[in-house]
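Reposting from the mailing list since nobody answered there.

I have sequence plus structure tokens for a pair of proteins and want to know whether others read the tokens the same way I do. The first protein:
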Amino acid sequence: MSDTIIKVENLSKKFIIGHQRAERYTALRDVIVNNVTGVFRKTSELIKGNAIVEGVTEDFWALKDISFEVKQGDRVGIIGRNGAGKSTLLKILSRITEPTAGRIILKGRIASLLEVGTGFHPELTGRENIFLNGAILGMTRVEIRRKFDEIVDFAEVEKFLDTPVKRYSSGMYVRLAFSVAAHLEPEILIVDEVLAVGDAQFQKKCLGKMEDVSQSQGRTVLFVSHNMTAMQTLCNKGILLEMGELKYKGYMPETITHYLKQFTSGKRKVKWELNHAPGNANAKFLSAEVNVINRSQSSVDIFETGDAFEFQFAFFNEKEGLTALDITFHLMDEMGRLVFVGSSGIHNAAVKNFEKGEIKFICRIPADLIHEGSYNISRLLLVQDRGAINLEVKDVIQFDVISKQEENLGWMGGKEGVIKPKLEWIY
């Protein structure tokens, strides 16, 4: 269609990687023979135009038969684990490397920011590199001069503008490189996670600029990051790569959900068979799970900030007439910080007598309490009469919380604070 600005068809990229042979003993004769053989092999590879790789070689497919289209004005987030092929895809789109198979159709100029100092000459000053980058993008000197003041003002490096960029810090490098790429009016802006080098204030400025470039000016942005909040804030479409293959493409929230399922599958709920359940002669744990409540969907795997949810714990009581039972759990975040401790005994929830058999406890967590991030119940305990029954299970269940799509946090930095309550204000 006419509004398609990037079309990728059956794209594949193969690399040849080498492994050194493990040799216990090498004679002088073997060294001479290997060196002579190596000269002929390398000469042959050079004539064929192939890369020279030492040792035993192996084919590695960084990308395998990938196809997708990007419309003009789309903000596309490319996500996946390390080694999924994200950076390779961006390098092919930026024409830094050639694909092994398939083709790409691009309409318009591309500006890429894939690593610190992309396209900069270290011996040239910041001023000279602005003009150099503009020329590489196909801009005239008149166009560059028209945007020059905006570039310098955004990058906040005016004091060092006539200093060779090799003396810049990594943060200054990124500030100027991003500013040049974003202001010189490319039809397609490609940004890798290099923005993480900048400070929080500059990250916020960059996300705001990318949003302005795509929404107000109708340009296309391809963005790679491991920060799901930044992805959801900026991107409307998503591409999920896994082991070089395209696993999902669609709207960004659904793409993030598919990505996070790789880490949460089977961990949101755990169940033990009675004969193998952790416990003792008095009681045994049977299950633990966490679920969203008050949401239109009957079952969801990924929670959003603003969701109310509940923990459900079940254990099997081996004794008649037990009283003062207390379920306690420790909720931790991905940084290993204790978010809070939940205890049924604090609220005298378990003073009644319990009959023999399965018993369930439900703990409801109010909406608008915790931040986006990854959480786990690191300890689950069952106590009766301060230790008559004392069961403990570690690393029980794990779940992820992402920001609501309408929550525009505006920057890609780390979350601030352990919890995120929705406070009532009177004024």
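The second protein, same order (residues first, tokens after):
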Amino acid sequence: MRVTRMSRTHKGAAVGLSLAALAAGATAGAGPAVAQPKAAPAAAADCSAAYRIEQKLSTGTTWRMCWRYEAKSGLVLEKVTYQPPGETKPIRVLTSAKLAQIHVPYDDGKNEYNDITDYNFGSGLVNLAPAECPGGTIKTVKVPQAMDPQHPDVKGLCTTTRSRGHAYRMQAEGTKVYQAQGKDLLVYTVNQVGWYEYMTEWRFSDDGTVNMNVGATGSLSPFDYDAGDGRGWPIGKGATSYATSHSHNVFWRLDFGLDGSSANKIEQYDSVVSPPASGQQGPTNKTTRTPVTKELAGDAKNMRWWRVVSSIGKNKDGHARSYELVPGATTKYSGRGFTRHDVYFTEYNKCEMYASNNPLSCGTGHPKTVDKWVNGQTLKHPVAWVNVGFHHIARDEDQQPMPVHWQGFSIAPRDVTAMNPLTPSALKGENGRPDTGS
């Protein structure tokens, strides 16, 4: 149950193309491709120093971005660029990225919340202690519509670095081992909505990967308990207090702008495994590419994925730069139209900013949910909306406090650089088919 926040009463796709003609765009009979990057990468973030995040990781990669803060989505990252070793200029990855909704329906049908738009998620930013941002910096945020209007300045934005384990390992001939430990730039905030505290985490890896996660912690609501009719789980002694199960459907809104251009392309890839044909040792697997030219409500399936492709930038091998959407674990909620799909690609509209209960006026009769925005428009400036669900069936271990449960996804570079950006100098000449020595 949620009453007032201040009192914390509630703490037309084209036909598939064969994989052989995928990203390179080669023409049969053409000569070898020449490495000719088409456009200069975008410049570094051009915001003022107070709103700039810039971090060179120990492995040589630099991430740069601007940030701002709004009452609903909270932290918004803009003009995000990636500059790995060997690249002379930053490469624009994202024009903007933010949370677009946290939809929380309870299994008994009595309560349903849109935490971003109904409860001003951003205004619930909390102060972070130095121990919560080890080795990093905590920035002060002037919070719009702050829960405590007398104290709108909150020390609530952490930027720090963390190790992520092996970036790679390769056993060469003899005893030579090539290995490196990867590093991440971590940017995060904690926002309180009711009894929940949401940790919004953005991890920017030295290999160009971006991980987006939301972790829910805090407390179970003391008001949301049922009668033990199968819609909850007994918490505490015996079987008298049943915490009502519920879902957390989190949406992210990503406006890529690869290489500084909004005219990105969307492609869908599907693979089909067929039984072995006569004379073959094993099954065959054929992958096809389908250009997504119109708005799409997409569903993840086995061996299906999407990528966002730059229309102007190429790497040093002459291949178009792109980022692949890498879904995380999800539990799809079928109770609402806007939660029934895993990803939406819509044509940019400045008033379409939140996946549900969109409060901005787009004109009379304009729908309020992202699924209704998919109406056949041609994609010239695509925006990606990613939906990741978690069905929270409480357990004894959820009290007290509740351990963090995470949900999220990643975007991974695909042909952004010609080789592994962390390749050791001794292996930089090994680009293309390996020399077998025969």
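Reply #1 (J.P.):
I read it the same way you do. The domain at 47-266+291-424 is CATH 2.70.98.20 (Beta-galactosidase; Chain A, domain 5).
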